[in-house]
Structures are given as C-alpha cells and as structure tokens.
Design a protein that fits this description.
CATH architecture of the largest domain: 3-Layer(bba) Sandwich
Structural class: alpha/beta
Strand order of the largest sheet: 5-2-1-9-20
Number of strands: 25
Number of domains: 3
Helix content: 25-40%
Number of helices: 14
Largest sheet: 5 strands, parallel
Strand content: 15-25%
Radius of gyration: 25 Å
Distance between the termini: 72 Å
CATH superfamily of the largest domain: FAD/NAD(P)-binding domain
CATH class of the largest domain: Alpha Beta
C-alpha cells in the first residue's frame, strides 16, 4: 500500500544577518526545509563589521572614561618612582589589542550563530545569491582557482535580508588607510591623533564619542543645526554639550564638499571654503541597501527610489512568496527590527500566529556617552498635533543613585495620552539607557497607564526609580 507524505515547505533565506538568521531559525523550528545563503559569514555585516565590533569598541571607550572620571568619586591612581615619589600614571589605550579583541569577538559570534543554525537543521551555503524569478534562488560559489559553480535552489518562500553598505562619495573616497568607512576603522594600529568625522547622525555621533574617550582629538562636521538631527531635541542638546565639554570640536551648519589625503593626513574642504586638517577621517554619510543586481525587479518586487524593498507590517513584499527583512527594507535600520521582521515573515508564510510589527513600539538606542534610548511617539509629533499627549521631563541629576555614581548629564522624559494617561512614548538619556528603556517599551507595547507604571516597585536607590518618579508626577486624578 502506497502512502503519500506531505512535502516540507521549502524556505530559502538570502543573507545571514540578524533578519536572515532569525528567519532561518524560525523556519527550522516550524519544520520547514531551510537553506540560508550568506556571502561573507553568518551574522552578516551587523556581526562582522558593524554592530558587534562598534559596540565592543564603545565598551572600551566607556572603560577609559570610567578610569578618567574615577577621581570624582575619590578614587585615585598613583605609581611610585624609584625615589618613592607618587606620580599619576597615564591612561593609555592599545588600539591594536582592542581591535584584535573586537574582531575576535565578532568572528566567534558569527561561528556561534552558524553552529546554532546547523544544529537546528538549516543548510548553510556560502556564496552570492540572486533571485531566479519568484520561486528560486541561484547561488554562485567559487572553487579552486577562481572557478564558479552555480546552483539553483527552488523555494516556496524566499526571505531577502541582504543588508546595506556604507554610502560612498566620489569627492571623499575611502582608502582604508586615512579615509575610512565605519567598516574599515578596525585596521587602525594606533589612536588617531586628529579624527575628522563627517556626518553627525547616529553612526557619526557614536564613533565621535568613542574616539574622544579613547584619546583622539575629534572634529565632528555636521550639516545641521545640531548633532543627531533626527532625534529628540533635548537629548541631542545634552549630547552636543557633553561633546563640547569633553574637548570635541563640533562644526554645525557645515557641509564637507571633499576629503582628500595629504602627505601626512587628510584635509576636509567645507562648502564655505574653510578647511579642516586632520590625521584621519571617518565618512559617516548614510548607507545604501544591497539590493542592486540580485533579481528583485525582474521578480516583480517593488523598490523605492533609494533601492529599499517595500514591505508591509508582516515583512511581505509586493510578491506574495517573497519577504524581506532588515536594512534593505523600508523599515527602521535596527538589528532588533531585522530580527523581528525575519521571524514575522516566516511565521506569516507558514500560517503561524503573527503580530504585525508596529514601528512606534520599537525601542532604539544611540551608544554615545551618555546613551540615548527612545520608544513610541516623539515630542515633535505631540507638538505638531500628530499625537495627543502630555510631556514630563525629570533631570537625572535629581536621582539619588545618579548622584552616588557621579552622573551629571541626562534625563527621563515620559509622554502620556491626554486624558487616559496611557504611556505613548519616552526618552531616556543616561549611562546604559539601552537597559533602562525596557520598562517604557513594555508600557508602550501593552498600553499601560502612568499610574500602572508608578505602582510597580523600583529598587531604592536606582536609576530606574526616575521612571517611576516621572510616572507618579503624571498621576491621573479620577
């Protein structure tokens, strides 16, 4: 007697970054036959050249800052000369050792992720992939002396998660020696004497903050009135004040027309004719999605003018069998969003329960010193009448734990729906704000009121106590 068995659903994932990785794991958990194609290594740019190495560098910068600021807490560092005289030692950063460590961590994280995929039953293929219509992917792999093999992998569902690359300008072309993108900085062997950072968005601000703490002279060239122009204005003002206080030169309303190498460094020419000379330059002027030449348009997938893939809240493209996740899409370019999109795409494709991604519920963080964490509606949207809400801001300098820790900069800001008191957003500027934002993210996700947030116990003393204090100050009188 013959039996017919239902064929497993075939899922092919193009790109092994956070979105592709989570899509592959989710597919394997739901019993699909999953193939993941990755050109460089599992984890993609997020793990190998972006998030993991940059945040590891920032952790080193924070350690350097902590040593420098320890004297404010009564901790002093001295060594003794042969005569017994106490001298204060110099805090030095071995950038070669730092870069070796962070690149090693990135590789280990990539290998750990690959091992998890294989244990889960995912077939991992290293090579370049492109769509072949709506139901297959062609993979090209190199073997031997440049030989290329082509494999065609048929799929019921395709998830595209190919990420993005640093935007390049012909007038300031990176060479990996004096002029860098953020993926190239880890080849530096010593702390730059004078680092020019072009671009004051998230990436530019983070690296400018880190290299200032590591001991570089830093000049930040910003084309806008204020650094971090897309962020909360109060938060950006705090960060810019800290930058200037720490010795950074911030050139506001300045645009770099070109950056060229000199004999011993670089020179940036501004649109008003001024020049800035430095030893090195970081170009942080945005990113371009890696969507060109991979068969998307031929398959009927709609793209924006910038090349980003149009997706809906379940990560589906204009083609029902093709989904997309991560920085190559029209959603927020965050690793956490990519991961959520990847899972959501596969859950939806396989008929599992799905919660469509709500952009306003996404918590994000900028890893400057101090950090900026946000979630929900913004103050600008409230002031423009897009959302109806009340605003309450509490300086962190009033927090007892902050005083104990010597924290002088930062605040907690809450946004609550007028009338009901439902938490609709918030901003936290503080050390480790990335950890502190989670209670507000829960409140926004589950539509808690300020009174419900205030009734939860916080530890005394703690930085999180300022969240409770702000919520209590917004009490709704019934």
């Amino acid at each position: 007697m013959a039996y017919e068995f239902e064929r497993k659903q075939r899922i092919t994932v193009l790109g092994g970054g956070p979105g592709g990785y989570e899509a592959a794991i989710a597919g394997a958990q739901l019993g699909a036959e999953v193939t993941l194609i990755e050109r460089v290594g599992v984890g993609g740019a997020a793990v190998l050249t972006d998030v993991v190495p940059s945040k590891t560098l920032i952790a080193t910068a924070e350690a350097a800052s902590a040593i420098g600021e320890a004297a404010d807490l009564g901790v002093q560092f001295f060594s003794r000369t042969e005569s017994g005289r106490a001298v204060r030692p110099e805090v030095a950063v071995n950038l070669q050792a730092v870069n070796k460590r962070l690149l090693g961590l990135a590789r280990q994280q990539s290998e750990d992720m690959k091992s998890t995929l294989i244990r889960s039953g995912v077939k991992v293929v290293q090579g370049d992939g492109r769509l072949d219509g709506r139901d297959a992917v062609i993979v090209s792999t190199g073997h031997g002396a440049g030989a290329i093999d082509f494999d065609r992998i048929e799929a019921d569902t395709i998830v595209v998660s190919v990420g993005a690359s640093p935007r390049l300008l012909a007038s300031a072309m990176p060479d990996g020696e004096r002029i860098f993108t953020w993926t190239q900085l880890y080849t530096l062997e010593a702390i730059p004497e004078h680092l020019i950072v072009v671009g004051s968005g998230v990436t530019g601000a983070e690296f400018a903050s880190a290299y200032t703490a590591l001991g570089s002279k830093v000049t930040l060239i910003s084309s806008r009135d204020q650094v971090l122009p897309g962020e909360d204005a109060d938060a950006a003002a705090v960060i810019e004040n800290v930058f200037r206080r720490n010795g950074m030169t911030v050139l506001s309303k300045s645009r770099a027309d070109s950056v060229v190498r000199t004999e011993n460094g670089v020179v940036a020419t501004l649109s008003d004719g001024r020049t800035v000379e430095g030893s090195h330059c970081l170009m942080a002027v945005g990113a371009i999605p890696n969507t060109a030449g991979i068969g998307l348009e031929e398959a009927g997938v709609q793209l924006t003018e910038s090349g980003h893939i149009r997706v809906n809240r379940v990560a589906r493209t204009s083609v029902p069998s093709i989904y997309a996740a991560g920085d190559c899409t029209t959603f927020l370019p965050l690793a956490s969003v990519a991961s959520m999109q990847g899972r959501t795409a596969v859950f939806h494709a396989m008929g599992d329960a799905v919660n469509p991604t709500e952009i306003r519920n996404v918590a994000s963080n900028i890893f400057t010193q101090p950090e900026i964490a946000t979630v929900g509606w913004t103050q600008r949207q409230i002031e423009d009448g897009i959302a109806q809400g009340d605003i309450y801001k509490l300086p962190l300098s009033e927090n007892p734990r902050a005083k104990m820790m010597g924290i002088k900069d930062g605040f907690v800001k809450l946004f609550a729906r007028t009338g009901s008191g439902t938490v609709i957003g918030g901003v936290i500027v503080a050390p480790k704000a990335s950890e502190l934002i989670f209670p507000l993210a829960l409140a926004v996700e589950h539509r808690l009121t300020v009174d419900q947030v205030a009734r939860a116990f916080t530890v005394y003393p703690s930085l999180s106590g300022s969240i409770s204090d702000a919520a209590r100050a917004m009490h709704i009188v019934l």
